[in-house]
Specification:
The complex is a heterotrimer. By secondary structure, chain A is an alpha/beta fold. Chain A has helices spanning 3-12, 36-39, 49-54, 68-76, 90-103, 107-124, 150-157, 177-183, 200-204, 208-212, 224-227, 234-256; strands at residues 23-24, 44-45, 60-63, 81-84, 134-137, 143-145, 161-162, 172-174, 187-190, 218-221. In chain A, strand 1, helix 2 (36-39) and strand 2 form a beta-alpha-beta unit. In chain A, helix 5 (90-103) runs antiparallel to helix 6 and helix 6 (107-124) runs parallel beside helix 12. In chain B, helix 3 packs across helix 12 (265-273). Chain B has one domain: ABC transporter involved in vitamin B12 uptake, BtuC (Orthogonal Bundle). Chain B has 14 helices and no strands. Chain C is globular and about 60 Å long. By secondary structure, chain C is α/β, with parallel strands linked by helices. In chain C, strands 6-7-8-3-9-10 form a 6-stranded mixed β-sheet, with helices on both faces. Chain C has a 4-stranded antiparallel β-sheet with strand order 2-1-4-5, with helices on one face. Chain C has a two-stranded antiparallel ribbon with strand order 11-12. The chains are: A alpha/beta, B mainly alpha, C alpha/beta. Chains in contact: A-B, B-C. Chains B and C meet through helix 1, helix 9 and helix 10 of B and helix 2, strand 6, helix 3 and helix 4 of C.
């Protein structure tokens, strides 16, 4: 009953031992759901308790903050409901993978996934040095994330310093354009969700003040399916961010020469 | 001539002077208010010497357009409120209450979110204008020619409700996944995202609307004595009414398409200033424009000063002040008319 | 202007509103220096006739001539300058000062962006003095008594310096003293060379002040002429449905009394 718990299920569930009877409609969305192809043949729900009951599930997993009334009703009706917080670090992703593994009897497989993920992480990660380049995510309306979020943790593991902390943001918060121009991160992560449609929030990212400012110099986009939710795909986000950082270093070295 | 006439002239001249002074003060304050404080003077000097830094950028590209738009949109709302109140001879009329603001917002929302926006920029104020005009024409079509103010306001309420519902629907159906978070922006107004191109875009229709409205003073004065008497003095009341509808639509449409619906300025400002200029509708027009500009500048400064985690909408503030005032007016009008 | 000049002429005028005929084939001629009383029971069409003549009401047939030219050839401003119209129960919508309100009478003379000239101010002062409201000029018009308000609204009309004045029941709500005051104002106006029609219910007042009377019944002009010719027992019986005795007082003025309803 939550996009992110859906991702865990789609990753870990084995059709021979357990069946995913329904997932949220969001999990079918190619833009936000990494495992949308695996989700293809699984019916969607919109978080309505009546819908869920019609599938008579043995286990319901959902988010702590999504469809709260529905999950409470289902608990009261005697269903087994397991709720997950949105992961705020890579470590928490590991814990959640283990917990799901336990719940659906696939603990061994989840450990395998975690090990694979750890191996890849070791290979690609590099923690930021003191003078590491700065980055900030700038979602519509000026919404941004700090160190204590999954995205923040991913930036950290890719060797970037997150400018949101300069603005005093640890978890999530809003940064207006003025602040953005003053704290001037080198790179800005745009939202790539809807490039051809309009929203006021997105027009903010095209504001002349931002376009004329010297920094942010680089605008980049990360596929949101990589880091919206926990899972091994977050390594791909690290790889992308690291590549950008390294190309930057090369350029700098060239200009230095 | 007579002493009394002279007094009023001097005091209304003083009033205009005071309002202009307030506009200058709050405009400067608006330029200096923000998350970061810096010396306006040194930044201006930097600007003069063609140096561009972070602060000149903030001043020119963020705070200047924001202050200009507050000035222009505020003046529009004050002026249109004064004109509508003069036309209907009732202090309860305003662009917000008669539906033209929400009509403008609806059309602007449709144009923006459904992709007509990229093609031609000027389509946006135009859409706002058409929406405003459609709403007010609908209100008057619903009420007929000689209806009471109560009927007109009820029709306005109905049009507002329909427009608000359609805005909601349009935003929820919009292709952009972020659109649904922007409902409050349209219904309560927001100045934080405006840029200089917005100013140039809204200016032509706004100025045209203002010009048309300032020329209505004579007719509005005559209307103080009722439609019959005004017509007997050679005022074409039907033409005056359409002129005010059209001019209001031009100016309000442009303002709403830029900053969303900001309520109650058009209601409160003319009412506060009316006693100060001797209740003459013609004199009220100009001072209401100035007063509206002052009020929106103040509200937008307050929004930036108030400690809030999430960006605050300027319309929240004008509504908190304006809505009780509206209730007060209703109670007052109940006392006056038996 | 010569006193016999015809300022205003109505020929064969018919007015219908929503397919109901209100005015049928009315004719009248207004000469400078004459005060006309428009009589007729409620619903006879007095107000509609005055509105049609002022240009506030469309008419279906006939012609209205202002200084020998069709009223339709005049622009609304020119018409506003020539004809003053005093609305029935005129309402003042904003608490304007009396001075300001009377200044509104200059509207037909002032283009959009011009203020009052000395000539305009002189006309306003004259109108205030003419109606004996000069002392009220600093008062707030909406706080005046009914009689004062009526005179102030009349001052507004005078300030426009029209030649022709149409007043719709100007004295209906006034006490006897104010009635006389207002009627004197009209008298002075026509004596100065203007012409006026006032719709009026007080037959004694009409007989005493008016040069000519027009008696309207169900939209038709049933009698027209000097008070002696119009106010006879026969006319009052057929138009108002009343029995009245008409006498002359010691000054040879018509007086009408002993009203009683005709029983079926």
């Amino acid at each position: 009953m939550n996009l992110c718990t859906d991702q865990y299920l789609l990753l870990l569930a084995d059709p021979s031992t357990s069946t995913i009877v329904t997932i949220t409609w969001l999990a079918h969305n190619q833009k936000s759901s990494y495992y949308f192809q695996r989700a293809k043949n699984i019916p969607a729900n919109h978080g309505d308790p009546e819908e869920i009951i019609s599938y008579q599930p043995d286990l319901i997993v959902g988010g702590l903050y999504s469809a709260r009334i529905s999950t409470r009703i289902l608990t009261q009706l005697g269903y087994r409901v397991e709720l997950f917080d949105h992961p705020t670090s890579i470590e928490q992703v590991r814990q959640q993978l283990r917990r799901i593994g336990d719940l659906i009897g696939r603990r061994a497989y989840s450990e395998l996934i975690i090990n694979k993920m750890n191996l890849r992480l070791k290979e690609v990660m590099s923690l930021p040095k003191k003078n590491a380049p700065t980055i900030m995510q700038y979602a519509p309306s000026g919404f941004t994330v700090g160190r204590e979020t999954l995205v923040g943790d991913i930036m950290y593991h890719a060797g970037w310093r997150n400018s949101a902390s300069v603005a005093g943001i640890k978890k999530t918060g809003y940064v207006d354009l003025e602040t953005l121009i003053v704290i001037a991160p080198l790179a800005l992560i745009d939202s790539p969700l809807a490039p051809n449609s309009f929203s006021y929030s997105e027009i903010m990212l095209k504001h002349p003040a931002l376009l004329r400012a010297k920094r942010p110099k680089i605008r980049l986009a990360i596929n949101p399916a990589f880091w919206n939710c926990g899972g091994p795909m977050l390594i791909d986000a690290i790889v992308q961010l690291r590549k950008v950082r390294e190309s930057l270093n090369n350029k700098q070295q060239k200009t230095d020469l | 001539m007579s002493g009394c006439k002279h007094d009023v002239k001097i005091s209304s001249f003083m009033l205009i002077l005071i309002l202009l002074l307030l506009i200058v003060i709050f405009f400067i304050l608006s330029l200096t208010t923000g998350r970061y404080s810096f010396s306006l003077w040194t930044t201006l000097q930097e600007l003069m010497s063609n140096k561009s830094g972070v602060y000149t950028l903030i001043l020119v590209e963020l705070r200047l357009p924001r202050s200009l738009v507050a000035l222009i949109a505020g003046a529009t709302l004050g002026l249109c409120g004064a004109a509508m109140q003069g036309l209907l001879r009732n202090p309860l009329a305003s662009p917000g209450i008669l539906g033209s603001s929400s009509g403008a917002a609806l059309f602007a929302v449709i144009v923006l979110y459904f992709g007509f926006h990229g093609a031609t920029q000027w389509l946006l104020p135009l859409a706002g204008m058409i929406g405003a005009l459609a709403a007010i024409v609908l209100v008057f079509a619903l009420t007929g020619k000689d209806s009471s103010i109560t009927t007109i306001i009820l029709a306005g309420v109905a049009i507002n409700a329909i427009a608000a519902a359609c805005i909601s629907l349009a935003i929820n159906l919009a292709p952009s996944p972020y659109a649904f978070r922007e409902l409050a922006l349209w219904t309560l107004g927001d100045l934080s995202k405006v840029s200089l191109p917005n100013v140039w875009l809204m200016l032509p229709t706004t100025l045209l609307g203002w010009g048309l409205l300032f020329g209505c003073g004579r007719g509005l004065n005559a209307l103080s004595l009722g439609e019959q008497t005004a017509s007997s003095m050679g005022i074409n009341v039907t033409r005056l009414r359409w002129r005010i509808f059209l001019a209001t639509a031009l100016a309000v449409g442009a303002a709403v398409a830029t900053v969303g619906v900001i309520g109650f300025i058009g209601l409160v400002v003319p009412h506060l200033l009316r006693p100060l200029i001797g209740y003459e509708p013609r004199r009220l027009l100009f001072v209401s424009a100035l007063g509206g500009a002052v009020m929106l500048l103040i509200a937008d400064i307050a929004v930036r000063i108030l400690p809030s985690q999430v960006p605050l909408q300027v319309g929240v503030l004008t509504a908190i002040v304006g809505a009780p005032f509206f209730l007060y007016l209703i109670v007052q009008s109940r006392k006056v008319t038996p | 202007m010569t006193s016999s000049e015809i300022l205003f002429e109505v020929t064969d005028l018919s007015v219908s509103i929503a397919e109901t005929t209100i005015i049928k084939n009315v004719e009248l001629r207004l000469k400078a220096g004459e005060l006309h009383g428009l009589l007729g029971p409620n619903g006879a069409g007095k107000s509609t006739l005055l509105k049609a003549m002022t240009g506030l009401q469309e008419f279906q047939a006939g012609s209205i001539l202002l200084r020998n030219e069709s009223i339709n050839t005049y622009g609304s401003d020119q018409r506003g300058k020539a004809i003053g119209y005093l609305e029935q129960n005129g309402y003042i919508h904003w608490p304007l000062k009396v001075q300001r309100l009377v200044e509104l009478g200059r509207v037909p003379h002032l283009p959009t962006w011009t203020g009052l000239s000395d000539k305009d101010s002189a006309s306003v002062e004259k109108a205030l003095k003419q109606t004996d409201t000069w002392h009220l000029r600093d008062r707030i018009s909406t706080t005046l008594s009914g009689g004062e308000k009526c005179r102030v609204l009349l001052a507004r009309v005078f300030a426009g310096e029209p030649d022709i004045l149409f007043a719709d029941e100007p004295i209906a709500a006034l006490d006897p003293a104010h009635q006389l005051m207002v009627m004197n104002c009209f008298r002075q106006f026509v004596d100065a060379g203007g012409t006026a029609i006032i719709a009026i219910h007080d037959l004694n007042m009409a007989a005493r002040y008016c040069d000519k009377l027009l008696l309207l019944d169900k939209g038709e002009m049933v009698a027209r002429g000097k008070p002696d010719d119009v106010l006879n027992e026969e006319n009052l019986k057929s138009v108002y449905g009343i029995l009245a005795k008409i006498r002359r007082d010691e000054c040879n003025r018509l007086t009408i009394h002993s009203y009683s309803l005709i029983k079926n």
